[in-house]
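S1.2 Input.
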Amino acid sequence: MRLTEKQKRFADYFIETGNATQSYLRAGYKAKGNSAEVNASRLLSNAKLREYIGVRIAAKDDARIAKQDEILEFLTSVLRGQVKEQFPIGLGMGEQQLVKKELDGKDRIKAAELLGKRYAMWTDKQLLDGTVGVQLIDDIGSE
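S1.3 Output.
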């Protein structure tokens, strides 16, 4: 993926703002009249640039969005009492101090419930077995 520095800057600004014309100008391209809009659109049709934008967006999404394994690990750690939360405790005279404590039982039960749903532990499983008759009717030539 060989892009010029200006093209990379354009792509990065476009990812940030979503505005092709503004990104074109911020990247350092010169334009007169409405040529910035036309040239920015043409630049976005460049396959290598679109690929670069796709890779960058995917990398951002990976860092930003929790994956299935991460969620399951978190729910498991809640269930096992490994997650602690901070809450204020009164010391008197209006003073408070933050202390860590294990999550309440209801939070651990909810984590167990969500994990159980994920693994379909409470779903009735029914095995249906049988034969079904099929009848074919040739009505094409009957008109």
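S1.4 Remarks. Residues 68-118 form one domain.
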